[in-house]
Amino acid sequence: MMKSVISGAVAAVLAVVSPVCASDFSVVEATIPDMQAALKDGRVTSRELVAQYLMRMGLYENKLNAVMTVNANALAEADALDRERAAGKLRGPLHGIPIALKDNIHTTNMPTTAGTLAFDGLIPPYEATLTTNLRAGGAIIIAKTVMTEMANWMVLTMPNNYSSLGGYAFNPYDPRRDPREGLNDGRPVLATGSSSSGAGTAASFWAANVGTETTVSIVGPASANMLAAIKPTVGRVSRYGVIPVSFDQDTAGPMTRTVTDAAILLGVLEGAAPDPHDAATTRCTPPANGDYTPFLKPDSLKGARIGVPRAWFIDEVLLPGDTKPSGGIPADQKQMIDEVVAVLRAQGATVIDPADVPSVLAKDAAQNVMKKGSCSAVSGGKGRDMECSVVLKYGFKRDFTAWLESLGAAAPFKSLTELRNWNLAHASAGTLKYGQTSMDISDEQDVVQDRARYEADRARELRLVGPEGADAIMKRHKLDALIFAGSRGSGFLAKAGYPSVIVPFGMVANGGGYPAGFTPKPAPLGVSFGGKACSEPRLLGLAFAFEQATKRRRPPNL
User: Fold this and answer.
1) Is 196 a catalytic residue?
2) Where are the domains of the chain?
3) Which of 163, 316, 413, 488 is the most exposed place for a label (fewest CB within 10 A)?
């Protein structure tokens, strides 16, 4: 529906904008400081930036399918911001910079669909606080990105970046379909990395995008698309106006091509004061003037103490009650971590290797953080869920219901049950290509009667990730951060709402089992720095120093 008209909409806009693309300035791989300098010097206008980005979409969108919808007023907004600049008025560090939003973030001038056919065309009655903050900072919301339907709380076996409304999105580092038997249903051969599409940012469709994460969906797609990104402490960026999975773990965050851009965007997203609509925004204190860039010092690794959790995160371990080891990463990824350790030491950091997490090594299953994962699929349904955590399935029922209520008369449904029934009734249109078992097991939850069980599981996770997990190992060795290959530590840290910053670094093998004659291209893999709540300033300094020492990002060859 909506997706079917995007290429036509872009083509219509291109007919108007093509004559204005006379500037020698190129948006390809351009950073936010690059663009601001060019805007200040008059070498480019915001209108020309928008025009170039729209042309990029016109050239490559059919290959990547990264765009859910385009802001038809983007050029007019750019013109208005150009006039403000000419009059000496600058709103903030993103004045005139085009930014894209994941399509679960409210905008009132474009639909917010979460990728589901049931929400096709939905215009919320209010915009997200982060959207308001972006506009106040001068950003042009140029587009909404394709995403995994319902932020991957539809069914956990759904391929990355597939939705019934948007179809499959593709990774620009290998934008082909998977040819392997059993996987050849149209999905990409190279995963885009969980539910937030970074493909458009990697391909220079816009300066940066805002993703959302519950367990892995900022760090994961950033790693998969050679991006820098920040998964903030839960509460640092307001969740108001973002379609939820669970507010216990949900956060929005910046996905960019450089750490500097991510730092700039985070400051704008956070805003200057707590959001009265989101009590969690009092958790962390914003930096002076909302500016994270003073923490970006190239010598930040000198004297830093970095831990390398190897058990489960890098090496296989035998968890209590199991008969075979689990966890671990492939040999080429282990080699990459060894390279990372060498860089850190060369930059003056003290590396504690290994720095294993105590709750990962616990011999008692009840005290082991890697046991009792999140309930999913039919086996995680009510009455069959004693061996899994109900935190996410309970949180989704609670928070999705509250979100529907916040829409008032604009709500397309009154309950999760109505949404599930609509999907069942429209299965022939593709609503249930992969099923909806995550929503099914959530709808079984009673937010009153099941609260005690939820609170027990939530308390367990907070304890095993915090005081008996990351906090314990960081305190023992006086660490500034823990490092992980790609998003390997994301699900663990996310349970306590802890932050991560990821930096592009290497390329690794993309699986196996391909038919004769098909050679997969290597997969990007980043390095993430994780830490305690509200430690973004320190993590950003470490990530920036690492980025400057390595400079491994390479643009895709489209």
Assistant:
1) no
2) 3-295
3) 316
